[in-house]
Task: structure prediction
Amino acid sequence: MGKPALNVLWLQSGGCGGCSLSLLCADTADFRGQLRQIGINLIGHPALTLESGQESLAVLADCLSGRVKLHALCIEGAVLRGPEGSGRFHMLAGTQEPMLQWIQRLSAVAEHVLAIGSCAAFGGISAAGSNPTDACGLQYEGDHAGGLLGGTWRSRAGLPVINVAGCPTHPGWVLETLAALADPHGLLPAQLDALGRPRFYSDQLVHHGCTRNEYYEYKASAESPGELGCMMEHMGCKGTQAHADCNIRLWNGEGSCVRAGYACISCTEPGFEEPGHRFDQTPKVAGIPIGLPTDMHKAWFVALASLSKSATPKRVKLNATSKHMLVAPSIKKTRLK
Result:
């Protein structure tokens, strides 16, 4: 007799719903069938389950009473605590009670709690600017532990909030995390990074697998939108710092931000929404980008950049500032050496 299906309840708080839309782009023609295949029973979702109105509230009541075992509570969107901590900026329809109170009660009975997307994880876009709604993440405010549940909170399974961060989050990250929880061996604390993100994607960098890596190696940089060169030096790309596998696990099986010509804005990281500069510009001091690649000392980067630029092939240099390939790689004789 196999392990019972993992009951998953998904609620939407203060956000755009983009993570749910992203989830529908999972690489399958039979989304519900894929959930069943990995042992997931989606017992509630505002858009993806049939229950609505009083039927949806009955599902929540069954979870709170224990009549239905709540294995995983997924929260999409930031928690809106305003005004003045009352939570009344976001009331759960049909209950006259703030969503934050429902999240607190359901979190207390859930075996696992997942923050789906950077808003739910860290506050994200919902907490940007003056943050008039007092938005926060479930267990973080930016990169500071706290949020709605508090930094020391642990689920019934003994884990902190599992932050499936991204704006939006990749459907594969969500499904693989849920599949890991449904697995008999479970998701151990060692498989989460220091910010509570699943390490199967957060131990990678967006830089890994980037199609512009040859330009990066030679520091052959794009200077305006649409050009083929590396976007780190001038166009604000943070792919060498952002923890995600976007260029390895492609979106919709074929794309990523940088492959589409957009700089990585590091949306899996806390505080990405307030970089202190335009997203399409790289801030510099004395001509050196402030945001250097992860683990690289400034002196080494300056030395490497100088050497790389002096050795840049003409083909790479010309193509970097073009919107189309001008010079193709040369053809050598057979028996390459």
User: Anything to note?
Assistant: Residues 204-323 form a domain with the Cytochrome-c3 Hydrogenase; Chain A, domain 2 fold (CATH 4.10.480.10). The chain has a mean pLDDT of 92. The first strand starts at residue 6 and ends at 12. The two ends are 59 Å apart (CA to CA).
